[in-house]
Design a protein that fits this description.
104 residues, 5 helices, 39% helix
Length: 104
């Protein structure tokens, strides 16, 4: 059975990058070595792996990667910190609950 990874890395400029791979160790080496000059992380090295999850279903992994890529920074940080209450609150409607900041 094949295993897939969805991951979040923190870049040297303090930004986050979300990705998908079938070999997490190899992919982290590629990010840190700058294998692709056109990649988001190329000029933001070194990178640090801050979160990952494993999946058996490639389509599910890709769907989760796309979902996380659409999240705000605060929501990604709640996931990284495993702050499930804040993750739920960050998922609420802005007009009803207001906008979260990273200091909340």
């Amino acid at each position: 059975m094949k295993i897939y990874f969805v991951y979040i890395i923190k870049c040297s400029d303090d930004s986050y990058y979300t990705g998908f791979t079938n070999n997490l160790d190899r992919r982290m080496i590629e990010h840190n070595e700058g294998k692709n000059k056109d990649s988001y992380t190329f000029d933001k090295r070194p990178i640090e792996l801050v979160w990952f999850e494993t999946f058996n279903d490639v389509l599910n992994a890709i769907a989760i990667e796309k979902q996380i890529k659409g999240w705000t920074r605060v929501k990604k940080e709640a996931l990284i910190k495993e702050d499930w209450d804040k993750l739920v609150l960050c998922s609420k409607n802005y007009t009803q609950f207001g906008k979260w900041s990273s200091t909340d």
